[in-house]
Amino acid sequence: MYLKSLSLRQFRNYDQQCLHLSAAKTIIVGDNAQGKTNLLEAVELLSTLQSHRTNRDGDLVLNGETTGQIHGILERQMGTMELGLTLRRNGRRTVILNGQTQRRYLDLLGLLNTVRFSSTDLELVRGGPEQRRQWLDRLLTQLEPLYAHIWQQYQQVLRQRNALLKSHHANSTRPSQEELALWDAQLTATGIRVIRRRSRALARLSPLAIAWHQLISGCRETLEIRYLPNVKSETDHLEAWQQAFLVKIEERMMAEYHQHTSLVGPHRDDIEFTINNTPARQYGSQGQQRTLVLALKLAELELIEQIVRDSPLLLLDDVLAELDLKRQNQLLEAIQDRFQTLITTTHLGAFDAHWLRHSQVVTVESGRIMTDQQPLILTPNQPHHSNATKI
Amino acid sequence: MYTLPLARLIEQLQRLPGVGPKTAQRLALYILQRPDTEIQALAQALMDAKEKVGQCSVCFHLTADPICEICLDPTRDRHLICLVIDSRDVIALEKTREYRGLYHVLGGLISPMDGISPEQLNIQPLIQRVHRERPEEVILAISPSVEGETTTLYVGHLLKAFTRVTRIAFGLPMGGDLEYADEITLARALEGRRELD
Ligand SMILES: Nc1ncnc2c1ncn2[C@@H]1O[C@H](COP(=O)(O)OP(=O)(O)OP(=O)(O)O)[C@@H](O)[C@H]1O
Ligand SMILES: [Mg+2]
Ligand SMILES: [Zn+2]
After folding, report:
1. Closest chain A residue to B157, measured at CA
2. Distance from CA of A275 to the nearest CA of B (A)
3. Fewer CB within 10 Å of terminal CB in chain B, N or C?
4. Which one of 3.40.1360.10, 3.30.70.360, 3.40.50.300, 3.60.20.10 gives the CATH number of domain B62-191?
5. Closest by alpha carbon to B130, among B102, B150, B95?
6. What is the spatial distance between Cα A23 and Cα B143, in angstroms, rounded to a whole number?
7. Which fold does the domain A119-309 belong to in CATH?
8. Where are the domains of chain B?
9. Residue A10 and residue A352: Cα distance in Å, rounded?
10. Residue nearest to atom 26 of ligand 1 (CA)
11. 10-residue block means of pLDDT along chain B (197 residues)?
């Protein structure tokens, strides 16, 4: 798929700007706080209807305005489509497909697929389980848009169940067995939907990630990816899952009363990465962790491509400059022109000149987008933007 | 900005659902332009409705009488009771002219976040009513939100001992969130499938 243009109206620090994407790779250059990430965020919103930076639409609308708009023209094998999203300070949204307002948000999901890779993804291995769950859930929404709904339902059940546990804590009574059982059943039903899909997605991603990892690390290391669901079942039968939930809920009942929050369910899942049988989280060197994240991202691209049967966009936020030249080249070689790529950076100097020549370069300055028409003149062997985290 | 009585009127109007400051101002200025008699009629209607309209003692639908018209209508099918969330649903279903049975208005959905537990809903009266009247079927017409599903689960469980319980898709919310869709129904149906043996 190919995003031909992106138009913004009163979105973040953009008043009214349009970006025509004219090459497979677009490099967005600008100083800090000029609006580079905001551009990628707009693409992310068209893709997932979510921003990784905020849950409040008020943050996304240009200060002082009440509505903002994102519009994109997308070319897919099945044809050209126009995606539109109107954001309002009050949180109400309108999703528009080919000029038609859609009744359900779901109808915009899954049309524009993206993989985001930012410097914070480097925390995927080292960070907390929450980050890994978010990563997997975001991938799942791309693979099966319905998952967004399934996850939302699970969270609503969780909020209700927690409210029940809390309200009784407040007046030091125990919720009636009957009422709690009702929410246990809902937690189980919606929780199983989440777990099964997470497990399925990881099972498909895993071999791809392992292959990439071997390629990047030069076959020296063996990666394993293991799903660690909070509730485990021996078999994948619905009844077995239900039983496993009920047993675990029973087990944790006292703890739940005391902590007055739900302790059982996929909101406590984790994913474990091991390299040569050692948990990458504790023992992986920074270099190993980076190789791992890079392999995961390439696997994501490939998996989406396999399932969606069209190549997703790759959004590289600040990350390329943080990879050493070897990994940079491995990444860029792997994506070639197969995946349309948007890259943000503060310094062009960090890039291999070979890649620069084949890219569209745009400059962003205080919410204005300037397309550089003339070829860039780069002094050869320009020192790479020094960065302490480089490996 | 506004003289005090006008400010008060705007303030009151603004409390109504869906009425923002601009609409409240427009309504207030409109009201001031209307003849006295019209405004008196409006005020009277407000007072009367509030004073006289209560709930049907059988089905909890809004009515000015002890028992509502639907419950008293001898032509309605007494073997059928349709369970709905509030009176708006009764009105919506009545407009279709498809349904000829009776109703029971629940008065809300189970929602711990809003402090609503099953006891606060008209569930006990429903059980008693079903026990007493022995309908052939109770149709649950409750929106399939998380709270709706939970309430359906609860009520369905309680009623099963007395009568046949069925459910219809109803009250699909418009706009807004990711919603119920054919895909979701399908996905659920697929989930419960078994291998042929
Ligand atoms: N709703 C908004 N209205 C106006 N300006 C906003 C809004 N939200 C963010 N900004 C501005 O956008 C800028 C940040 O943009 P962005 O995050 O895209 O920066 P960046 O170019 O990616 O910078 P960095 O190199 O530091 O990552 C800040 O100047 C911020 O004040
Ligand atoms: Mg940025
Ligand atoms: Zn009645």
Report:
1. A182
2. 35
3. C
4. 3.40.1360.10
5. B102
6. 48
7. Glutathione S-transferase Yfyf (Class Pi); Chain A, domain 2 (1.20.1050)
8. 4-52, 62-191
9. 35
10. A32
11. 92 92 94 95 95 96 97 96 93 88 96 94 96 94 88 93 84 42 58 48
